[in-house]
Amino acid sequence: MSDSEILIAPSILSADFAALGAEVGAIDAAGADYIHIDVMDGHFVPNLTFGAPVVKAIRIHTKKVFDVHLMIAPVDPLIANFVDAGADIITAHVEAGPHLHRTLQNIKARGVKAGAALNPATPVEAIAHVMDMVDLMLIMTVNPGFGGQGFIPLLDKITQARKMIERTGRSIDLQVDGGVNVETAKDCINAGANVLVAGSFVFKDGPEHYARNISAIRG
Ligand code: DX5
Ligand code: ZN
Predict the structure, then answer these.
(1) Fold of 3-218
(2) What CA–CA distance (Å, rounded) separates 132 from 78?
(3) pLDDT tens digits, residue range 179-215?
(4) Any catalytic annotation for residue 33?
(5) Is residue 205 annotated as part of the catalytic site, yes or no?
(6) Which residues line ligand 1 (CB under 6 A)?
(7) What are 199-208's pLDDT values in tens digits?
(8) What is the position in ligand 1's atom list of the atom closest to the CA of 13?
(9) For residue 149, what is the DSSP state?
């Protein structure tokens, strides 16, 4: 896979929440492809971030793809809220409930792209029977809940995921999330990822360095 196909999705989990609109504008100007929005409920994951009203408030600050990563359970009751708030992609966790197929149906029925996320311990086979419904596969390389954690080297899993995607013959994003920096980004790209989420690495050193940080992980 060539570098030109690599997309960078800065996670605003590491942004300055007191200046979220300006931060989103800054990563847009710095070359972000997707804006990765980590929604946590303090139940599915042991941390709490923000909900649809905050997503709606930052929507006016960029036209880029809003890539909403829902770390919430249950998922289905809030899908409409995030679509109305301006989500372009909604990703739900396989582990968040017993009815992933229904959740993906609900997301797609609202006209946005659907993603399926896998925690580090969950095998890629967990989504084998819904591959025809997914537009994005998210491989977590940390246990979800916090930014700034160390990368779990699940490179074989990323390669397995890429093979599953190739077998569909469809264009499906393969996203890696957690502990992405210059070194781990290279490994993820070599293993087959095409979308890299990065929070702490992109937002380090302040807005004047966001463009440098994004291009460093793009390779
Ligand atoms: C973790 C989130 C990630 C996180 C990544 O639960 O899903 O998106 O913000 O942060 P870094 O890049 O700092 O590991
Ligand atoms: Zn995320």
Answers:
(1) TIM Barrel (3.20.20)
(2) 23
(3) 999 999 999 999 999 999 999 999 999 999 999 999 9
(4) no
(5) no
(6) 11, 13-14, 36, 38, 69, 142, 144-145, 147-149, 177-180, 197-201
(7) 999 999 999 9
(8) 9
(9) P
